[in-house]
Amino acid sequence: VDIRIRSGGHHYEGYSTGDCVLVIDISRLNGLKLDKKRNILKMEAGAENTEVYDFIGSNGYVFPGGTCPTVGVSGFTLG
Ligand SMILES: Cc1cc2nc3c(=O)[nH]c(=O)nc-3n(C[C@H](O)[C@H](O)[C@H](O)COP(=O)(O)OP(=O)(O)OC[C@H]3O[C@@H](n4cnc5c(N)ncnc54)[C@H](O)[C@@H]3O)c2cc1C
């Protein structure tokens, strides 16, 4: 069985879905951890733009992810 990984599900060509495939949805792997001393944000692969914006914005930082709130950060990064 072919496998598809789905983060935010926004792939333009539909590579995170398909017929007769096993979809592994990682959207609940969405933990975020900020190390303020080292200015490093660790994001789990299923986090969405909006979750990152809310978290990082409330800590005084920005994230350049575009406008769509439900784009996944790992699909965005791979793209
Ligand atoms: C309606 C729409 C609005 C958009 N708006 C914006 C925007 O505002 N800002 C912006 O920057 N971009 C935007 N995009 C483009 C978007 O950034 C890309 O399409 C991006 O690749 C989507 O990532 P995703 O995680 O949501 O999609 P997905 O379909 O979940 O993933 C994209 C690809 O990456 C693979 N993948 C995902 N996670 C992993 C992983 N952890 N390991 C291995 N493979 C993985 C998937 O299998 C798939 O092939 C938009 C696209 C659409 C369709």
Key attributes of the depicted protein:
single chain; 79 residues; alpha+beta; 23% strand; binds flavin-adenine dinucleotide
Radius of gyration from the alpha-carbon trace, in angstroms: 14 Å
Give the names of the bound compounds: flavin-adenine dinucleotide
Low-confidence stretches: none
Which structural category fits the helices and strands? alpha+beta
Number of helices: 2
Average pLDDT over all residues: 95
Distance between the ends: 25 Å
Shape: elongated
Number of domains: 1
Q: Tell me about the biggest sheet?
A: 2 strands, parallel
Strand content range: 15-25%
Oligomer: single chain
Describe the structure.
With 79 residues, the chain is of the alpha+beta class. The chain has one domain (2-67). The chain has 2 helices and 4 strands; from the N terminus they run ββββαα. Strands 1-2 form a two-stranded parallel sheet. Strands 3-4 form a two-stranded antiparallel sheet. Strand 3 and strand 4 (40-43) form a beta hairpin. The two termini are 25 Å apart. The mean pLDDT is 95. The structure holds flavin-adenine dinucleotide.
